[in-house]
Amino acid sequence: MSELHKFLFDGLPVRGMIVRLTDAWTEILARRRTDDAESPWPGPVTEMLGEMAAAAVLMQSNIKFNGALVMQIFGEGPVKVAVAEVQHDLSLRVTAKVVGEVAADAHLQDLVNINGRGRCAITLDPKDRMPGQQAYQGVVPLNATHGEGQPDMAGVLQHYMRQSEQLDTRLVLAANDSIAAGLLIQRLPVEGEGNIAKGQAMDPEEQMEHFNRIALLTASLTSEELLGLDVETILRRLYWQEKILRFDPQTPRFACTCSRERVAGMIRGLGQEEADGIVAERGEIDVTCDFCGQHYRFDAVDTVQLFTAPGDRPPGPSTVQ
Known about the structure:
By secondary structure, this protein is α+β, with helices and mostly antiparallel strands. Residues 316-321 have low confidence and may be disordered. It is 34% helix and 25% strand. The strands form three sheets. A six-stranded mixed beta sheet has the order 7-6-3-4-5-11, with helices on one face. A five-stranded antiparallel beta sheet has the order 8-9-2-1-10.
């Protein structure tokens, strides 16, 4: 079962969380494979989406936001856009639009940043918006972490969190076709310094020393270990000299927010003339959800009813057919 664990380093201004998406991740991939309109994502795309899914769960849990956190990667390459969306209850879904061939050893740079113009956007969309309230969006270039090596997903998101939250962060991500996992370590903001025991005040330099030490331990975790070891083993191997305070685990899950009503609203947005034209050409309007593969079909009668006021619709049959 998928699991998310949060923890604190007792007496230190550092917090952490680790996520392992198992059943939630395999259900997402299974739905992709069984959708007759699509084929499975290539291996490098699956890994990128898995890392995005794990990171999005960690970030949503970290900010405790009542709404959707939407992570988007877009740019130039065979992956035109990749999306991971996590709701406040840790339900999640992901998708990507892939056009063209993907090399078996393709890196993030090859997938979406071949000309150096790729972007990562994080959108916080409130569940219950107040009048005039807008969704918040932060955008960072994928090349923001340029240096000796190519940008990777963890580096891009670490840069985003330094820019948006002004918090030092260390992130390790990994994914395959069975598991998507991530480990996040972050220096606590000022209000989090209550975790430091009374009488043990630390100056900023000492706080950074502790964070850097724990971040160095975190960075030693390999992708193989993150994917192959259970949470207890990972925490024990990395932080065996630290006293860790654990919180009750949470259970991320796959869930899609699509519905027939939402698709009907989209068709109304096309206008009756265009909708009727699609029905005349194809016999029906068939919309497939990119996230879960669910098909929504509207025939000629359904389409007419979409543009008919409720009071003008004929009464339904009085007996069950």
